[in-house]
Design a protein that fits this description.
Layout (H helix, E strand, L loop, with lengths): L1 H15 L68 E3 L13 H9 L6 E3 L10 H13 L1 E3 L2 E3 L14 H13 L6 E11 L7 E9 L10 H4 L2 E11 L7 E7 L8 E6 L4 E4 L31 E14 L12 H4 L12 E13 L9 E7 L5 E7 L5 E12 L4 E11 L4 E7 L21 H9 L1
Antiparallel strand pairs: 1-2, 3-4, 5-6, 5-17, 6-7, 7-8, 8-9, 9-10, 11-12, 12-13, 13-14, 14-15, 15-16, 16-17
Length: about 450
Amino acid sequence: MRLKYLAAGALVCSALAAPLAAYAVSAADLGQSLTPLGGEKAGNGKSGWQAIPEWTGGLTAAQAPRNYRPPQHHPDPFAGERPLLVVNASNMAQYAQYLPLGVQDLLKTYPQSFYLNVYPSHRTLAVPERVAENTKRCATTAHLRGWAMDGCVGGTPFPVPSGSSKDKALQILWNHITRFRGVYVIRRASEAAVQRNGSYSLATNDQELYFKYYDPKIKTLAELNNVLFYFMSVQLAPPRLAGGAVLVRETLDQRAEPREAWGYNAGQRRVRQAPNLSYDTPIADADGLRTADDTDIFNGAPDRYDWNLIGKKEMLIPYNDYQLSSPTIKYRDLLTRDVLNPKPQRWEMHRVWIIEGTLRPGKRHIYSKRRFYIDEDSWQIVAADQYDNRGALWRVSLAFPKEYWEVPMMWSTLDAFFDLQAHRYHVMGLTNEEPTEFDATKPAPPDEYFSPQALRRRGIR
């Protein structure tokens, strides 16, 4: 069995070893031949479902549906389109070169339940001008210090990856970790672990995120005080856990200061520091199907793996998935047995960077290897293949991004985590049945708002 998976991995690596034709670019090309965050502006010159169009500025409020008012659920700007292609278990061999290995295994494992609806591609990524300007500056100042990043605040640090394969892979990973997702955002969202028989229970939370790294008031790393973001979550359901709360202080340089986290237990009315909310710590609401560093497909310190760049490739990935957050679709219709309902999913052809991390000697993690597929425009990891310690493909993670044009920024509307061995999956970010979806209209509170003392007050309410 191990040889089977190693052979399959070798074939995929061979296919990915022929990346798109390289061309010389530099920071001076940002906003010219490159998008503001470093993607190639040009399309690929192909037609139909294979076409990647030219980037022409993305989807902003000026081009978005006019009936939208934040924080309502976003209407689908592409609702009138129909799939150009359906990839399923019976025809996947024709399209395997365009599919992440984990997606291929999902098609094989659930031939009756899973398929890809492939639509015309739209390059919708747009960001504020200040983020574009900061990215241009960071392109000449950001640098790696070992596995850490330094020399950048308020922008994508490495829009033009350079150096060795290891350097490029780490730079690309840092682009994902630090990508722009607004400044202060509020949402109520649910998550669910779906069992083999299709049953599930919802865990619902009020969430607040303050991405201090992108606060316009912060001009220097010294002002940042090593804070990448704050995250606060108050549990609303299930009733037995209601009132519990979590606070995370995510640091930019985790060598200098590791992540700090606190939990408030409503029954005990006590706030306690959570020393192990990192790496492969299992997440309770995910029923063990997601590790702490699976959140956001990957987060936290990248120091337990040796990272290498596999290449850049045109691939079919989830994109512009507005239907997955539509209030017209109920959770019971999304959370189908075996896999997340594929009917409302939208897949498009885009260019992705592919990097791979192999567990370093002497380091511990439940995943021996991770392969990430990163959208060139947004630097969002859209798919991940995760291997167990026998070398077998174990879990597959998918992010379903869309452009939040009112900010503007791109983020996943929900993330799904599939366990191929347990035949269960977990979904987080569900907002369909909530009264609102996402609120980025309010000013950021001060740092003191995100303190252990404030956490207790939020949990009591």
